[in-house]
Amino acid sequence: MAREDFYASPFGVAYSAYAERPRLNRLIGKAVWGGDTRRYYESMEAVRQVANGASIVDCPCGAGVALREVTTDMDLRYVAIDLSPSMLRRARRHVDRRGLRQIELLRGDATEIPLPDSSADLFLSYWGLHCFDDPAAALAESARVLAPGGRLVGSTFLQGNESLRQRLLVRPGAGDFGNPPTESNLLGALEAAGFAAPSIDRSGPMAFFEAQLG
After folding, report:
1. E strand or H helix at 210, and its extent?
2. In this predicted structure, what is the pLDDT of residue 161?
3. Rounded mean pLDDT of the chain?
4. Domain that holds residue 72
5. Which of 143, 145, 195, 199 to pair with 185, CA 20 to 30 A apart?
6. For the residues of 144-209, what is the DSSP string, one character each?
7. How many domains does the chain have?
8. What pLDDT score was predicted for residue 74?
9. Three-state secondary structure call for residue 103
10. What stretch of H or E contains 85?
11. Comparing C-alpha atoms, which of 101, 135, 129, 124 is closest to residue 206?
12. Which has the closest alpha carbon to 179: 214, 116, 129, 133?
């Protein structure tokens, strides 16, 4: 199965189900990964903090979990991009059910986003970098799309974990993992892409990061 279709599997269905339920995801995060997922949902408040008329890119958008922060009366452009057709179908169901007319769903690669330079104010990059063969290229593409001063908010699994269980779970080429970054790789790629003073909040093998384009 091609990596972009991985989430059409039973695992993909289960993943989408618990990602949309913060309490369940928190239990799974602790039991399976040894980390706390609360920061993931807290960081989505960035969607509500953008100014009227702002543009948001959500790539990869997955099943559209971050759409929970969008309301029908918000004045914004929200472009949700994913390589997985099954994930886009799940996101479409959220959009249609809630009548979110601001949302544009596109199938695309995180390293080739079909948007002009400096066209976004906020870029969401949740749980995608560890799936890619070249996470640094995806971060460079997010910097290209963001306007100067634009904000990047995201999360990823990291290699180089302390516990044996986490090292066995987070392995390049296993499951949906491509080439997960280490913490130092992630920090270096953010700085190389032009992000100023990036912050990384780590919980077990999970990293929650934020940065502003310089």
Report:
1. strand 206-213
2. 86
3. 93
4. 3-213
5. 145
6. HHEEEEEEEEEEEE-S--SSHHHHHHS-TTSTT-S-PPPHHHHHHHHHHTTEEEEEEEEETTEEEE
7. 1
8. 97
9. strand
10. helix 85-98
11. 129
12. 133
